[in-house]
Amino acid sequence: GGVLIQNLSRSADISKTLKTDANGTPLEDLSIMADIKTIRDIPLFIQLTSLVGTLNTWLQFLQTADYRPKFLHGCTSITIPEAYIYYASKQLMGLHEGLAGAAAYEDILSARYPDRLVGTALKLNTSLAIAQLSIVGLIVLGNLGYVLARLRRGRE
What we know:
53% helix
């Protein structure tokens, strides 16, 4: 992936670098590519991913001293800490933080538009929190059982 991104960032003609889309259509035949020659002709990049390190790779190879594209990022909870670094440094224009971000956004919308239909992000976020607390509780119980078993064996 990193090699592809490097090649795209250096390419004088993206259509010649990538050649076709997923369906085999030549990129130069796509109307969306009519005004796109180089990476600098793309006005906004949006990345939606759950993979750790992907955002870092895109930003590492797309940005230069004289070029910083507009970039939005949507991620799952595991990659939020990585994304905050780039959001704080303004390398990202916007950041959508997975389910927690969806719940926060839903809460803002509900406050602003009280008559809107309530979505499911807040319910899902609560369910996820309960599931995570249950897992922590089971880990604590498992460790407690282990310690008690060792203490019992030590008395025998």
